[in-house]
Amino acid sequence: MSSHSAIRPPNFAILVDAVALTLNDSENMTTLTNDSDLEVTTNDVAVQALDASKCYGDAETLVRALDNVNIEFNAGQFTSIMGPSGSGKSTLLHCLAGLDQLSTGHIWFGDTDLSTLNQQQLTDLRRDRLGFVFQSFNLIPTMTTRENIILPLDLAGQKPDQEWFETVVDSVGLADRLRHRPNELSGGQQQRVAVARALVSKPDVIFADEPTGNLDSRTGKAILSFLQEAVATFGQTTVMVTHDPVAATYADRVVFLKDGRIEDELLNPQVDHVLAAMNRLDG
Amino acid sequence: MDTKLVRHSFRQLLSNKVRLALTSFAIVISVAFVSASLTLSTGISDVIFGWGETQAAGLDLVVEPESPFAPKNFEVSPARVSDDTVELVRSVDGVADARPTLWSNFLFRPTKPDGELVDDKFTVSTFGWVEGSNFEIVDGSPPRSNEFTLDIDTAEANGYIVGETYDMTTPTETRAMRLAATTQFRDPNGTTAGQVVQTISMDELQTELGQPGYVNIHINIEKGSDRSSVEAALQQALPEGLVVLTQQEARSNLRELVAPYAQGFSGGLLGFSALSLFVACFIIYNTFSVLMQQRTRELGLLRAVGASPRQIRTSIQIEAIVLGLGCSIVGIAVGLGISYGISEMFHSAAGFPRPDLALTPTAVALSLLVGTLATLLAVTAPARKACRVPVVNAVRGVQPDTKKTPTVRFIIGSLLAVAGIVSITVGLTADATTRSTVLLLGVGSIFVFFGVALLNSLWIARCSQVLGAPLARLTNVPGRLARDNIGRNRTRSASTAASLMIGLALVSLVLVVGESFKATASTGAESAYKSDNILYNQWDYKYPIAVAEKLEALPEVEQTVAISIDLAEIDGEVQYLTVADQQTASDLIDFDVSERSDMLEGVTHPVIVTEREANEKGIKLGDELETRFYNGTTVELTVVGINRNNAAGGSSYYIDRSTWFEQTKQTTVDIVAIQSAATVTESQFETAMERFEQANAQVNVETIDDFIASTERSINTSLQTINAMMFLAILISFLGITNTLALSISERTTEMGLLRAVGMRRKQLRKALRYEAFLISLFGSLVGVVLGIAFGVGSVVAIPASIVNSVQIPVAQIVILVVLASAASVAAAAVPAWRAAKRRTLDLVNA
Fold first, then answer.
1. CB pairs under 8 A between A and B
2. What is the C-alpha end-to-end distance of chain B, expressed in Å?
3. What are phi and psi of B401, to 5 degrees?
4. Which of B670, B697, B724 corresponds to the end of one domain?
5. Distance (Å, rounded) from C-alpha B847 to C-alpha B844?
6. Of B396, B418, B437, which one is at a domain's C-terminal end?
7. Is the pLDDT of residue B211 over 80?
């Protein structure tokens, strides 16, 4: 642990549920169950929210988008965040990703407290250590597939690692589309370019905000499988917000939010468990 | 429904104050200049015409000599009416009073009590005193010998005292004259038009002009007699060559005489306002195109719930009309301010009188109409386009495909450009009146500009790839984004560039023509004279030949040659003509007469023609040229030489002074070439010339080099004035850049959010936007400069070689122009770029 650990309060609730996930094959994943007595691993925490609160409006119209949220996301883990509309799931994602600022509390990104960073440092952090996949409008229309993929590296003035670039491009199956522009690609291909872009800088965490929201279910599944594979193959820490129970099950872990609080959590989720959990939230 | 739609579209318009302000500003400024031009030209015409009216006031008939055309300097007013004629007119039945008139604008300039010249910028008119004229004495008595009177305004403003003696300068000396009286016009509406108006005794004026006689005769008829019968009687009694004019005719003749000055002035101003309006139209068009695109979905919704395309179009048009009207009203008010500013500028720079500036109903109506129509015109295409989108696409927010019709654009653009070039060519080459030439040129260049603006959209994407390549290499993402974004809406980028293109095209046109003019003038002056110095009048008026004689009498001066430049009708065409003594002229003027006829001895009216003119007109040695002078006399000039130095003499025809004097009785000169005596040193000569200038306050003696420098300075001043006006159009086009960029940014909000989210720094984003503006303006500037140079070279070629004969392209100035325009465009982009980069990433992402 780093020197920060001394001032970082332990978060036992999360520690209990933390799981080691070295998912090298899908077989292994499907055998995992939702038991609470899973082994606690020594995996590093990639990103962590501590007493995170986010409020909007003034005293009378106060809305608590996040209400004292404590959560850790371990390195190499694929986490889904679910919850009804207005539950604060997007706010949580935005705050974790340094796009939005907490009212109180801290986001630790590895060893870095995001609240201590200025705008430019946050921008550089997003560029160098984060990957993004949005629901729509993921690509710059004037850039080719290749240019879109290496955009964060270009912005940093770095040359892509050619071998890694090819690995990523091959794995998303876009090798023959590198010179195309977004309007020449299908919706699914566009999202795959977005994922490739998120992967290419070898970020600490990929944040995906409803990445399949605009896709038909088959294309959506392909993207999710691909994300899942990225986690499995490259050990890529991934946090995804979704409202689709099926999509959520591609993750190793599902976190349920309601009214800005974490209400529930499932490991190695199955669709029926997720649906049941959602029903409990609604109830 | 309609009113609701209109109200709705207004809310939209008002929702973005910055956008509204930029668009409005473009309309306001253009209309302001239209209204300022109209107000100023009315005011200034009133001043100029008022002077003519004042002179024609209170008389019934005028007798004056016939003139086939006006002499070069009408202020010289050659006196061609004799005392006998005055007596003859007085003897005609029904004539109550006949007053000969004589005036000069150049002979006398009094000094003020403080010793300075009374008005070193504007005209001093000197009249010979006649009893019963339209002058009346306020205080004092009529001027006798060595006395003068002054108009009461000048006298009061400068503290003259009646009875005191003041220094009066003439071209040949400074003498002491007593102020005999102050005067005013009998006509209560009489105006001095800002001039200093003085009278001296008729004898003295005639002596100074070096010729007896008068300009014309003002006649009042006896009470009760019939004007037309008196007119007929006069006509009968008078010898040939004299005409009788009614007051009406005299007035309209005077008007005609001064009209070119008033027209030239208001025409120039109106031209500039048309230019700024033209540029503003591009901006209004752009704004509404983007507004319509942004509102595609909303307009689709309105149509889905039942609004017809016509209703929507009408609501947009009403919006444009109200915007146009509102801005025009503000523009008229601003225009009044501008016209005060300009008239103050003229007053302080050139001593031009401050005109009465009042908004005429015509000016108001015209400004409102022009501003509103221009706005309406500019929104027509965007409004139609918005309504043509299928409802389904509109509701889904699918943008109309702007890349669909490149061939149509190409065809229309090429046709317009070709039509424009044809019109310009015809205008430049065909023998037409000034008015139709200007019209052909104006319409032609508007066609070319529109054509090229349309064609620009075809190649702006490719050009910006090339222009932006170094930027992309240097700055990577920002440079690439800037370069590629230009191609995204090529029509919009092209029309943004077009407004700058027009401004820079005109400025570089002016620069090319001006520079060529300068080069012609200086090489002309350089190669024209063999003498080391020349003398000329600083107000560009003619002066008595006595000045040259006085100079030649100085021991420091070896020789002088007096040159007059005037007009004559040669072979049916009014031409410039140089007058000098053919025996001595070639001593100091660098004539290069290749063939000289040995007939010179026997020829009474010789003429030497420049080689260029001889080749052009097919004139050969020994030809007889039928020549008519402004007073109507006609002679046959015999060609005795062909002069190969086209610059020598200042015109294509060069005649002997004896011929000129015989025909016109005029002895005034424009320029005197002076050769210093070999026996004196340079400084001795300079001292002598300084002394001469002091004694003859109205003339300048300069070395040839200084003369060239001062000629260039005066050309530069006019260039600067013209370009200062052009600057307005360019300013408007920078507003266009700001506007377009702001609008493009608002379309790309989400995209910018993405860029920021994946790690683009604020600085990088600002850079990308600034570079985009830079590339658009670089493209516009370059196309504009190329067009301007082409127009400029074309004009120089088309202007007769006797006026401009060398094509000069001021490369350095044009490069500076492009650099400045690019720098300004970056500044224009600063605000929208800053506003965009300032926004929080999350807001952009969620937009």
1. 69
2. 30
3. -75, 110
4. B697
5. 5
6. B396
7. no
Q: What is the pLDDT of residues B428-466, one digit of tens each?
A: 777 656 667 777 887 888 888 888 888 888 888 888 889
CA–CA gap between residue B736 and residue B714 (Å, rounded): 34
The letter for the amino acid at B824 is A
Measured distance between the N- and C-terminal CA atoms of chain A, rounded to whole angstroms: 41
On whether both B336 and B421 belong to a single domain, the answer is: no
A95 or B524, which is more confident: A95
Answer whether 0.90 is exceeded by the pTM. Answer: no
How many angstroms away from the CA of A128 is the closest CA of chain B? 8
- What's the residue count for chain A? 283
Domain count, chain B: 4
Give CA–CA dist B283/B327, Å, rounded. 14
Give whole-number Cα distances, B347 to B191, B336, B355, B827, in Å.
Answer: 17, 16, 10, 34
8 Å CB contact of A157 and B476: yes
Chain B residues in contact with A132 by the CB 8 A cut-off are 754, 757-758
Q: What residue has token string 């005066």?
A: B714
How many domains are contained in chain A? 1
The amino acid that residue B138 corresponds to is V
**Which ranges of B389-486 does DSSP label H, i.e. alpha helix?**
391-396, 406-429, 434-475, 477-486
The answer to whether residue B472 sits within a structural domain is yes
Are residues B214 and B92 part of one domain? yes
Count of C-beta atoms within a 10 Å radius of residue A266: 22
Is A123's CB within 8 Å of B480's CB?
no
Which residues on chain A are in Cβ contact (under 8 Å) with B758?
126-127, 132, 151-152, 155, 197
Distance CA B329, CA B317 (A): 18
B334, B354: one domain: yes
State whether B117 and B224 are in the same domain.
yes
Q: Do B488 and A120 touch (CB under 8 A)?
A: no
In whole angstroms, what is the distance from residue B373 CA to residue B325 CA?
Answer: 9
List the domain range (segments joined by +) for residue B362.
Answer: 1-54+250-396
For residue B397, the tally of other CB atoms under 10 A from its CB is 13
CA-wise closest residue to B836 among B775, B710, B751, B776: B751
Nearest to A265 by CA among A79, A106, A129: A79
Nearest C-alpha in A relative to B754? A138
Looking at this predicted complex, what is its ipTM? 0.79
**Chain centroid offset of residue B188 CA:** 33
The CATH number linked to A163 is 3.40.50.300
